[in-house]
Write a structure and sequence with these properties.
- Helix 4 crosses helix 8.
- Among the domains are: 43 residues, Orthogonal Bundle (Arc Repressor Mutant, subunit A), CATH 1.10.10; 127 residues, no CATH class.
- The protein is α+β, with helices and mostly antiparallel strands.
- It starts with a helix and ends with a helix.
- It has 9 helices and 4 strands.
């Protein structure tokens, strides 16, 4: 008699009662290929109510665990938000350099993502200025990524060497644009491509979004003190005089 005959009979009964292949393998402590060979032609005769209830409970437990986990991280983000507000009130709101960075990021930075700080631009001076603040904000030592977007008519090595020397970095990822039609007739050129800088940190992103919101509240209250008078500007040639004389 086959020494696994009794296990095969149990597997068949379990299958008839609605148990799945993984469940039977676990209960009998046998491999999937063996159990599958035993039950591959066995029809399920009745639905296992207990099994359905167990799976439903497992699903509900997973949902409950997910909600609890979400609440836990929400509380952590609230703490980071309060820290950001404290830092703002304690001096950041008076730091013109930081406020310039916040203003620029609110215009050009990644806003939709809840866990990525990043921006892109083709102006080297703006990128270098923002790079300084990215390094300051990267207090959890996340990996800062640099990505360069190049057109078909740009030399990859020359552009990469420029940015590496200018920013003092060692690695840049290249993103080539297809440039359908090869940009015929183009009379402008982004000389050094478009550089993106980013790192992933959901907690710091919460703080940055908080600072942006606080800065926007200040902008609403600002009243410009500078004015320009027409008399202070050089005269502009009257282009309509030529038409009048011609007429």
């Amino acid at each position: 008699m086959n020494k696994y005959g009794h296990l095969k009979e149990k597997a068949i009964k379990l299958r008839e009662n609605g148990y799945s292949l993984p469940d039977i393998c676990k209960m009998l402590n046998k491999g999937k290929s063996t159990v599958h060979y035993w039950i591959k032609n066995i029809q399920i005769k009745k639905v296992n109510v207990f099994l359905k209830r167990s799976k439903a409970n497992h699903k509900n437990n997973c949902i409950a665990a997910g909600l609890a986990n979400r609440k836990k991280y929400k509380r952590v983000h609230e703490k980071y938000k309060k820290v950001a507000e404290t830092l703002w009130d304690s001096g950041l709101k008076n730091d013109d350099s930081f406020k310039l960075f916040i203003m620029y990021y609110s215009c050009e930075g990644y806003r939709r993502s809840t866990w990525t700080l990043g921006l892109c631009n083709s102006d080297p001076s703006l990128i270098k200025y923002c790079t300084v603040w990215f390094k300051i904000l990267n207090v959890r030592n996340k990996k800062i990524e640099y990505k360069i977007q190049l057109h078909v008519d740009q030399n990859e090595k020359d552009v990469k060497d420029y940015w590496k020397k200018f920013l003092g970095i060692s690695k840049i990822q290249t993103i080539r644009k297809s440039n359908t039609g090869k940009m015929s007739g183009r009379n402008w050129n982004s000389k050094y491509g478009v550089l993106s800088i980013l790192f992933h940190d959901s907690y710091m992103k919460t703080m940055l979004d908080t600072w942006i919101d606080l800065f926007k509240k200040e902008l609403v209250c600002i009243k410009p003190s500078f004015t320009i008078k027409k008399e202070d500007l050089p005269p502009v040639p009257d282009h309509t005089s030529y038409l009048r004389n011609k007429a």
